[in-house]
Amino acid sequence: MFKQLIIPLIASQAMASYCLKYVDDSLSVKQETRTANAQIAHDKAKENNWVHEDQNFPKNIWFVMFWSIDNGDYQGQGHIALAYMDDAGNMQIHDSEVHRGAREVYTNFEDFYAWFGSVGIQMTFLGWGEGVDGVKLLEKVEPVAQPKPVEAETKKENKVEESLDILKKKKKKKELWKVYVFPFSFSKDKIFKNNFFENE
After folding, report:
1. Model-level pTM?
2. Whole domain around residue 20: which residue ranges?
3. Model confidence over 18-61: pLDDT tens digits?
4. Residues 6+ apart with CB under 8 A from 194
5. Are residues 125 and 181 in the same domain?
6. End-to-end alpha-carbon separation of the chain, Å?
């Protein structure tokens, strides 16, 4: 489970081939921490343990995505984008291509790969990230541990037993009170007699 630390300004302007600049601008990354290209940015984020090499994307928060570029003029420079997924699995992918006005927002990986594949670029997904160039968008939050049903039931049973013990002790005290405090009674003619000799 993750929580959002920074909401990116996804409407930031972009230029062709400057995917990392678009993401860094959206996150207000300081100039001194910006890296030369998306591949280097990925490698740095991976060193910080910010990269997850799976597709178990966090829901309802923004994160980054990394790809390698495997051929062509930009081979080795990588690609980066901002992404968001809701509870229903609907995805948005925003990169420099979208925000320079070349196309609409990508809504899935197939759409993304088809766009770059149309100009012969081959890419490999490297993972999603918690941050880039020294800026974290999100952080992991440990869920609060809930008591196990068995433990809860045991606690309930213990409370019942404690209540029964209290009632038993009260009853015992009441009986002792009767024996030791009230051994005598009044007869109808108000003569004070001991209970044990009342029938004599």
Report:
1. 0.73
2. 2-140
3. 999 999 999 999 999 999 999 999 999 999 999 999 999 999 99
4. 183, 184
5. no
6. 84
Total domains present in the chain? 2
CA dihedral 127, 132, 134, 139 (to 10 degrees): -60
SS3 of residue 122 by DSSP: coil
Q: Can you read off the two tokens belonging to residue 111?
A: 């759409």
Judgement on whether residues 122 and 167 belong to the same structural domain of the protein: no
Instruction: Report which residue type is found at 115.
Output: W
- Residue 193 in contact with residue 184, Cβ under 8 Å? yes
Amino acid at 113: Y
Instruction: Estimate to the nearest angstrom the gap between the alpha carbon of 130 and the chain centroid.
Output: 13
Instruction: Name the one residue in this structure whose structure tokens are 């108000």.
Output: 190
Examine the domain organization and report whether 29 and 67 are in the same domain.
Answer: yes
Q: Residues 6 or more apart from 77 whose CB is under 8 A from it?
A: 37, 38, 39, 69
Residues 127 and 165 grouped into a single domain: no
